[in-house]
Design a protein that fits this description.
Structural Genomics Hypothetical 15.5 Kd Protein In mrcA-pckA Intergenic Region, Chain A; Pseudouridine synthase; 4-stranded antiparallel β-sheet; globular
Length: 298
C-alpha cells in the first residue's frame, strides 16, 4: 500500500482533513476510500477522526476503477509527452485549471477531458497539482487512479523536483537566496495567501539569471507546494513578480500577465519507476518581455 509521510506543519490534526489537503481530494472521497480499505498510521489501524502529526506514516489502499479506452478528439492542448499512465502538457496563460462559481470560459479540465475521455474516470480528473491562471509551463495529469495516487503521494512528500522562472520587480542585492517562511490563507480574503508564522511551512530558493534596470530574471525552485507560494515569497522579500498586482507589483501596466513560468518538472514514473524530466520552453510573451527589458540600458 502507498504511504505518505506527513510533512512539516501538521500538529494533531484529523486524519481525513490532512489527507484531503495533501491529496487534493474532498473528504467524502477520503471516506469512500477508507470504507473500502481502512488506513494505517505507523503500522496501526487508524480512524478518520484520529489525530496525526508531522512525521507520521499514513498508508492506504489504491482503489482503481477499470478505464475504458476511447478515441481522442481534436484539442488545442500542447502535449509534451503521453503514455498509458500520464499526460504532460505545456499550459498556456489565461486559462483556469478547473471550474469555479461564476466562471464562464472553458477550463483546462474541459479541454483535457475532451482530449482524453478516460480522465473522467480518474480521481479529480487526473489533476495532481495546479498552476495559476496566468502561469505557463509544465503540468502533469494522471490517466489512471494508480498513477494519480502515486503522483499525489510524491507531491505530498515533496519528492518531485519543480523549477520555475520569473521576472521580479527590483534587483535583489545577492545573486542567490532562500526563503523559509510559512504561508496561510488570509482570513479576510479567501483568494489571497499571506506569509505568516502561523501558516504551513514553505521553502523557496532562487538564483538571479539576468539583471535589468529595475527588474531581474530569476530561476526558482520550490521545495513545498503551497498555494501561490512563489508569488507570496517574492513579495515577502520585496521583489514581487512583474505584473502581479495581487501580490505587491507596483508600476506601469506594461506586462501581459504575471510573469511566472513552470519550466521543468522531474519525478519517478508511476509504472516504470524511471526518473523522468520534462521541460517547457519560454512562451513568446515571456521572451518578448525579456527582449524589451534588455533594450533598456542599466
Amino acid at each position: 500500500m502507498p504511504a505518505i509521510t506527513l510533512p512539516e506543519g501538521i500538529l494533531k490534526e484529523r486524519c481525513d482533513k490532512v489527507l484531503s489537503q495533501l491529496l487534493l481530494l474532498p473528504r467524502a472521497h477520503i471516506r469512500t476510500i477508507y470504507e473500502a480499505h481502512p488506513f494505517e498510521c505507523n503500522g496501526k489501524k487508524i480512524h478518520l477522526h484520529d489525530r496525526v502529526s508531522t512525521g507520521d506514516a499514513v498508508t492506504f489502499e489504491i482503489v482503481d476503477r477499470p478505464l475504458k479506452k476511447t478515441p481522442k478528439c481534436n484539442s488545442p492542448l500542447d502535449i509534451i509527452f503521453e503514455d498509458d499512465d500520464i499526460i504532460i502538457i505545456h499550459k498556456p496563460a489565461g486559462i483556469t485549471v478547473h471550474p469555479a462559481p461564476g466562471l464562464q470560459e472553458k477550463t483546462l479540465i474541459e479541454y483535457i477531458c475532451k482530449y482524453c475521455i478516460r480522465l473522467k474516470e480518474v480521481e479529480r480528473s487526473g489533476i495532481v497539482h495546479r498552476l495559476d491562471k496566468d502561469t505557463t509551463g509544465v503540468m502533469v495529469f494522471a490517466k489512471s487512479n494508480h498513477a494519480f495516487w502515486h503522483l499525489s503521494n510524491a507531491f505530498a512528500n515533496h519528492s518531485i523536483d519543480k523549477r520555475y522562472t520569473c521576472i521580479v520587480q527590483g534587483n535583489p542585492p545577492l545573486n542567490t537566496g532562500k526563503i523559509e517562511i510559512p504561508i496561510a490563507r488570509q482570513t479576510n480574503d479567501k483568494f489571497k495567501m499571506i506569509a505568516c508564522l502561523s501558516g504551513k511551512y514553505a521553502k523557496t530558493t532562487w538564483i538571479v539569471h539576468e539583471r535589468f534596470q529595475n527588474f531581474a530574471w530569476l530561476d526558482v525552485k520550490i521545495y513545498t507546494g503551497r498555494t501561490h507560494q512563489i508569488r507570496v515569497h517574492m513579495n515577502h522579500i520585496g521583489h514581487p513578480i512583474a505584473g502581479d498586482i495581487l501580490y505587491g507589483y507596483k508600476g506601469d501596466n506594461i506586462f501581459p500577465r504575471v510573469m511566472l513560468h513552470a519550466e521543468m518538472i522531474s519525478f519517478i514514473h508511476p509504472q516504470t519507476e524511471k526518473q523522468l524530466t520534462f521541460t517547457a520552453p519560454l512562451p513568446q510573451d515571456f521572451s518578448e518581455v525579456l527582449d524589451s527589458l534588455r533594450s533598456i540600458k542599466i
